[in-house]
Amino acid sequence: MSTPAVHTPAQGTGATSGPRASRRPSPRLSLHSPPALRRIPPGVWFVAPFIVLYLVFLLTPIALGLVTSFFNTSLAGGTGDFVGLGNYRELLADDAVASSAANTLRFTLYSTPLLIVVALVMALLTHRNMPARWLFRLAYFMPFLVPVTVVTMIWTWLLGTDFGLINGMLDGIGLGPVNWLGEPAAAMTSVVMVTVWWTVGFNYLLYLAALQGIPEELYEASSIDGANAWQQLFRITLPLLRRTTGLILVLQLIASLKVFDQIYLLTSGGPNFSTRPILEYIYDVGFTGLRIGYSSAISYAFFLVILVIALIQLRLFSRKEGSA
Amino acid sequence: MPHHHVGGSLTRRNVLRIGAAGAAGAAAATLGGCGGTVFGAADQVRYWNLFSGGDGERMQRMEAAYRTAHPETNLEAVTLTWGAPYYTKLAMAAAGGRAPEVGALHLTRLASMAPGRLLDPFDEDLLADVGVRRQDFPEHLVERASVGGELYAVPLDVHGLVLYVNREVVRPTGLLDSADRLAEFRGPADFLNALDEIHTATGEIALATANDPSSLWRLFWTFYRQLGGDIQLPVGERVQYDRDAMVEVMEFFLEVFDGNRASATLDYDAGVAAFQNGIAGLQLNGSWELPSYADALETTGSPDFTMLPVPAVLGPEPAVWVDSHALVLPHQDSRDDAGDRRAYEFIATLLENGLVWASGGHIPVYEPVSASDEYRSLEPQSNYRSTAADGELDPEAWFAGAGSDFHNQMGQVLNAVFTRSMSPDDGISQWERAMNQLLSTPSPV
Amino acid sequence: MMSAPTVPLDTPRPTGDGRLPSPPRLFTPRLGRVCIWVAAALIAFVWLLPMLWALATSVKPEAETTAYPPEWTASRFTGEAYRQVLSQGDLVVWFLNSTIVAVAVTVITVITSAWAAYAFARLPFRGRNALYALTIAGIIVPANVLVVPLFQQMRIMGMVDTYWGIILPQVVAPAMVFILKKFFEAVPRELEDAAQMDGAGRGRIFWMIVMPLCRPILAAVSIFVFIGAWNNFFWPFIVTSDPDLMTLPVGLANVQNAFGVRYAQLMAAAVLAALPLVLIFLFFQRQIVRGVATAGLGGN
Fold first, then answer.
1. Tens digit of pLDDT for each residue in C151-203?
2. Is any Cβ of chain A less than 8 angstroms from the Cβ of B260?
3. Based on the domain organization, do C94 and C40 belong to the same domain?
4. Domain A87-323 CATH assignment equals 3.90.1310.10
């Protein structure tokens, strides 16, 4: 389900397929295909496998989710009874929906700025040639390649309150032990910290690529004009990175709203549900609590919220692009 | 239900199954069809369970015993992930009517599995034929395993909270005498003093516990029941419980979790490691951790440990949390006598091999095993035999039982209270609200 | 020529009159470079620390792992934990499952997306524009939010706990179609026309001309899809409960059950599970960086 999110690069890149394409000579298939099949344009065959997969594995769940959300379907079997908007009424009154949605939002608000700033700092520090640069790049990016379970195994061990390395180091400088994963404020901090460590490498590479796309002459010219490094940073580099930052922001928001893996594995949503994201509540209700109908309703509501956010972002983003 | 066996299911097991069926078919063909069906379905027993690690290893030995005794039957055992995923899967298979012949289950989870819809009742005459009768089991387990007079589960064991004692660490404090008997506690103060003594002697935490929801629930339920507290979960009504007793238990544990006597922040792994590596002198944990420590003792020479029943601390009676692994018949659309007999024979074989199971720390409940001299001479298993009788099963509801939402709701509250980020009163109120909400939703089973 | 749609960059703007105030010389350039290097090295050290600690723990004897305060080295080095973990066999099974799943996802995703993208770029037919619009709309669908209905559907289709059930829901990648379409449109049409004159069918042109020309971008996106599929946790976690079918990330989530509580073994398993992709990165660094940079795909 890794439907890759994508930015909309250069809306007018290269050729368009419009008028020229319609002048194509009539396409042909293999010589062995029967005449009836041969009359179907080859484009249809090329598109068919993708479209079939798209219909079955992307559109069908969307439709099924909507239908199921009007029933009190149980995982224990059967479709259940039609309850109309009952599930939606229930979710509006369900405190756990509100609090887990708030947790998702808090996670997004804390992690997004860090994931942008840290990535930017890393990229700015290492985009010029320097000794051991390959090692720095590897160090920054490597965690992104590590399966989430490995990430949480290692961090659970590091963050352990009683035997963990981090508390050991804090102890060494005279600071009291922190209950990293067992106390609400600390647990959210830990989750954000782990997320930054794990995924910042992706944004780092995006920034790095953008920095390398900035023509060296710009810097040379401004050096001749006597600009120092700080002035170059603020007058050339950062303005030229605005688009990349916008892109990262979009990707980051969408990814953060769907957060589940690292939280489920680190805290299971605890302590006292203080880190449980909405997606985990959906999981808890549907799979642990057997209430497929109700959890479909929650997913559907959440699905619509993300869709709206994505549309707004797309709108803003393409407008910005248009004005650039 | 399209293509369950062949079509889209590219599992290795299915590939093997197809291969095996092909081979069997070829064999049958050469033998000129001398009886028996070609495709395994007719003479196979499929068995799903959630036992991994030390339990899994012992279960496999018991399965091997069945295979030896019944070479004509193809026993296919599948181990699935413990907890919610397992019950989800079992429910789904039963809902689809293609369930395995036999499934393992926590007895406290029976209510969540919709007996009568997802589970089929046992035919007690047939069960008696293979040597298993109601009266072979403790009455309270049979009661819990029955719905409307029909038996839906056959208990394999009782497994409960026990007190693990590191003899080397604890003996100098005088808490343990030379015959491995624990000093008697006359009230909570005695218990706290004992923990203080161990801490003074070692400089480490005295008692290891774990902060995951299910572990916290086990601790809580043990001491809450010692105070005589109870919880009733009547669907459609409101939760009934003893608030004063709950507060008292929580306050007792706030004294235990002072960072020296015990740490409220150990997770399950850290709790086991703390005892296994000789840091904590005592541990309150399920009897199933026996193989881990026995293994460590064998390979590294420590910990030198024994296992004792959880002592009565808050009340006169040594009540203790327990659950029971039981065997059930997931619902099948059509049943036949021959298939049932094979399933019952398999269950009987597991019961008869209860000693193997007991070596993993579980307490057998099938009388021919539990009353046997072999079991009674097992060390340290026989020490905590009384746990089966003193045991208190979880409250009953469709959302309760092992690894359930009920465990999670109470466990989260307990963790918040024990780490002092919530007062006992607030915690209980939060839990009460959650329970009432669950009770007001229509049961999905 | 084929130029990748690069990460969006604002077009360089003329810098006004270009006259900047004379710089205050706080640092010599050399000192500045040293400071930057030290900062970069410090961050790298912090970023490597967790992995190093996992490595250090994994070669300790089990009983010394919980020493407190923590020590980087134990009384002796031992490979015992690795031997134990590997002898359990589960890790190898999960590794194979991950490989099967990731390879299948990559192949199916790339081929079906490339076919569709090629048709959208070059092969007109009635309704094509509508289908393309549908595809583009799919880009913003947050698919894994609908995990509950998808699971229901897999149940109905009998695909729960099967390889296909893990693989197929991961292969629909509208964004990839969008990206590849841009690249196919940039392939010089003359080559295709010439091949068509020679009597080559569309399939042949696609495989013999278009695909080879687009090899760099295909390599980049393939590796990227592979990484995503290899590391995907959520969906395989939902759709499998049979340990024999689990992928590495999902299986490891149950590693405690499998190995008892052994921190050295846990960390050994973590190190082993992290290795394959780190090695792949070392070999395919360029393609991976390019995959990230050009496509900007993969919701992390």
1. 989 988 988 889 999 999 999 999 899 989 988 998 888 888 888 888 888 88
2. no
3. no
4. no
Query: HSE (CB half, 13 Å, CA atoms) of C23?
Result: 16
Residue C116 lies in a domain: yes
Query: In this structure, which CATH number among 3.40.190.10, 3.40.1110.10, 2.40.50.140, 3.40.1190.10 belongs to the domain B12-158+323-376?
Result: 3.40.190.10
Report pTM: 0.84
User: Residue C242 half-sphere exposure, CB side, CA atoms within 13 Å?
Assistant: 20
Q: Residue A319 contacts by C-beta under 8 Å, 6 or more apart in sequence?
A: none
Question: What tens digit of pLDDT does each residue of B367-415 get?
Answer: 999 999 999 999 899 899 989 888 999 999 999 999 888 999 999 999 9
Residues of A in contact with C179 (CB under 8 A): 6
Amino acid identity for residue A78 in this structure: G
CA dihedral B94, B96, B101, B105 (to 10 degrees): -20
Domain residue ranges of chain A, discontinuous segments joined by +: 87-323
pLDDT of residue C296: 53
* pLDDT, tens only, B117-149: 889 999 999 999 999 999 999 999 999 999 999
Cβ-count burial C237-255 (b if 16+ within 10 Å, e if not): bbbbbbbbbbbbbbbbbbb
Give the pLDDT of residue B4: 34
Task: State the smallest CA–CA distance between residue B131 and chain C in angstroms.
Answer: 32
What is the C-alpha to C-alpha distance for residues B24 and C215, in angstroms, rounded to an integer? 48
Query: Given C78, C109, C133, which residue is the final one in a domain?
Result: C78
Q: Which residues of C touch B85 (CB under 8 A)?
A: 241
Q: Which domain holds residue C73?
A: 31-78
C96 and C63 in a single domain? The answer is: no
CA distance A161 to chain B (A): 6
Structure tokens at B244: 């004063």
Among B10, B14, B59, pick the best mutation site for testing chain C contact (most C Cβ within 10 A): B10
Overall domain count for chain C = 2
Please give the pLDDT value at position B430: 95
Note whether A250 and A7 are within 8 A (CB): yes
Six-digit token string for B417: 């209270």
Q: What is the ipTM metric for this complex?
A: 0.84
Q: Based on the fold, state whether residues C168 and C249 are members of the same structural domain.
A: yes
Q: Is C26 within the bounds of a domain?
A: no
Look at residue C300 and tell me if it is in a domain: no
Hunting for tokens 């659970």 — which residue is that?
A: A156
DSSP for residue B372? S
Residue to substitute from A288, A291, A292, A294, interface B, most B β-carbons within 10 A: A288
Helices (H), chain A: 18-21, 35-38, 42-54, 60-68, 86-93, 95-126, 133-145, 148-159, 165-172, 184-212, 216-224, 229-232, 238-240, 242-257, 261-267, 278-283, 292-323
Classified by CATH at the fold level, domain B160-318+394-440 comes out as D-Maltodextrin-Binding Protein; domain 2 (3.40.190)
Domains B12-158+323-376 and B160-318+394-440 share a fold: yes
C200 shares a domain with C99: yes
Binning pLDDT at 50, 70 and 90, where does residue C295 land? low
Residues C204 and C270 in one domain: yes
Strand partners, B282: B165, B207
- Distance CA(B433)–CA(A91), nearest Å, equals 16
Tell me the mean pLDDT in the region C133-137. 91
Using alpha carbons, select from C185, C131, C137 the residue that is nearest to residue A3: C137
Of A77, A80, A289, the CB nearest to B118: A77
C122/A3 Cβ within 8 A:
no
Same domain, C42 and C140: no
Task: Name which of C93, C105, C161, C166 to mutate to probe chain B: the one with the most chain B Cβ atoms within 10 A of its Cβ.
Answer: C161
- C-alpha to C-alpha distance for C239 and C242, rounded to whole angstroms: 9
For chain B, the structural domain boundaries read 12-158+323-376, 160-318+394-440
